[in-house]
Specification:
By secondary structure, the chain is an alpha+beta fold. It contains 7 helices and 21 strands.
């Protein structure tokens, strides 16, 4: 994350559009066919690229199905107050895995929360007004499942229940970068087989229903008729094709750097003021670059709770401690009841600017104004990418420290998302790739 050139096209093995002769989409089906997309089932895609040059940055997961009543599996009545939550699709999955050339590249838990916390901060405000609705990117404006008090819920409910000829029918198309950091940057890849595994979770995190007397909707169930991948096939110009043939005759390596995502959750004990949680990754040797934190409290699985919202939980101070270094070094206390967010609002803005590698002073901001940040989407962000590299080595400890102004409530959970820098060393003749950790990314052979 410290080196912007890591994500430059010239260092990523990408194919720019001017050097593309033809560009079209192709469709891939699940490995064994979708026979059961119900909860806790695994859906796999196996893409044998052979000589195809596939553009993963513009690839999509497409899902066809229907939301039906859990009891009886019949269609909902007209006007039923049930809808997908904001960014519902990732919340349908408990785990996703990406394997390239036989090596596992990403393994993400808490998929919905990783995707939501990351892109609630990163996406521009206008995302919901453009292509966002086709993957349920439509933020809430209130906490209730009401079409009068919550405009986001009203739009999603209309899209699911009112608009289709058959109530509850849906076709959702979501970019694969909403799941995998590997897919986020401009990358066209050939010669390496790719396998994706999507493990379905329960239905309830993706649905939100009204439970008020007289307007209550019953619990819903997700049913799927088809899941496919839509991936662009790039046909390079003659000059680029010749370069590819040279690479087969005289193989050479090329590098692609990406942000490898991670997610976890932990219960927060009740009636405490101080909380500490280790943020773990593989073998405790990973250095996170940026960290997102969100709090929720609910024990219900009856779709009456909106899993897209994050509460401030009256956090007074919070910081990340890596080995003996604290981020941020200076604590500014928040007092949420007095409309004082400390410096947490600015921290998410600055994290976004560094993630996107451009300042946001004269560009469109995200969906989080100060009131929305306080009441609906309180996401605590920590940019620790400017850390001292003296932290390097094989013993990295990373802990979240939180001080609550009031005692914590029961059934509180903390969700944590973070990424580590990764570089793939790939080869033009398709020989086994090499995965490098971020400590390798910034070290030149002459150093």
């Amino acid at each position: 994350m410290n080196n912007a050139a890591m994500y430059a096209l010239s260092d990523a093995g990408g194919i720019p559009y001017p050097e593309t002769e033809k560009y079209h989409y192709d469709r891939w089906y699940t490995t064994t066919g979708l026979t059961d997309g119900s909860a806790y089932k695994t859906i796999r895609f196996n893409i044998r690229q052979d000589n195809l040059l596939l553009h993963w940055r513009n690839s999509y997961l497409e899902m066809h199905g229907q939301v039906v009543k859990k009891e009886g599996e019949t269609a909902f009545a007209d006007g039923a107050l049930i809808a997908f939550i904001h960014n519902a699709v990732p919340h349908m999955f408990a785990n996703v895995k990406l394997t390239i050339g036989g090596q596992q590249i990403e393994n993400v838990n808490q998929v919905g929360h990783v995707s939501s916390m990351l892109y609630d901060v990163i996406f521009p405000r206008s995302k919901a007004k453009s292509d966002g609705l086709q993957f349920m990117w439509m933020p809430d404006t209130g906490k209730t499942a009401s079409i009068t008090d919550n405009k986001g819920f009203a739009v999603r409910q209309k899209y699911l229940i009112t608009d289709p000829h058959t109530n509850g029918m849906f076709k959702l198309r979501i970019p694969l970068y909403m799941f995998f950091g590997f897919m986020e940057n401009f990358v066209a890849l050939k010669g390496y087989p790719i396998e994706m595994e999507f493990v379905r979770g329960p239905d309830y995190p993706a649905l939100f229903r009204n439970s008020e007397t007289g307007a209550a909707a019953g619990e819903g169930k997700l049913t799927f008729s088809e899941m496919t991948l839509n991936v662009p096939v790039v046909e390079p110009s003659t000059a680029m094709a010749l370069e590819s043939l040279k690479g087969l005759k005289d193989p050479y390596p090329y590098f692609f750097s990406f942000r490898q995502r991670h997610g976890m959750f932990a219960p927060v004990p009740a009636n405490i003021h101080d909380f500490q949680q280790p943020i773990t990754s593989d073998f405790f040797t990973e250095r996170p670059q940026m960290i997102w934190i969100g709090f929720q409290h609910s024990v219900t699985t009856d779709q009456k709770f909106n899993h897209a919202l994050y509460t401030n939980e009256d956090v007074e101070t919070a910081y990340i401690k890596m080995n003996n270094v604290q981020f941020p070094a200076t604590q500014i206390k928040a007092n949420w009841s007095e409309n004082d967010n400390g410096f947490f609002y600015e921290m998410q803005q600055h994290t976004r600017a560094n993630y996107l590698q451009h300042p946001s002073t004269y560009t469109e901001g995200n969906m989080l104004d100060p009131a929305t940040f306080r009441d609906l989407y309180t996401i605590y962000c920590f940019d620790v990418s400017k850390q001292e590299f003296t932290l390097g080595g094989n013993n990295i400890t990373c802990d979240l420290h939180v001080q609550f102004k009031a005692q914590t409530v029961a059934n509180l959970r903390v969700y944590i998302a973070w990424f580590s820098d990764r570089t793939l060393e790939l080869f033009t003749d398709g020989k086994p790739l090499v995965i490098r950790k971020q400590i390798d990314n910034y070290t030149k052979p002459s150093d």
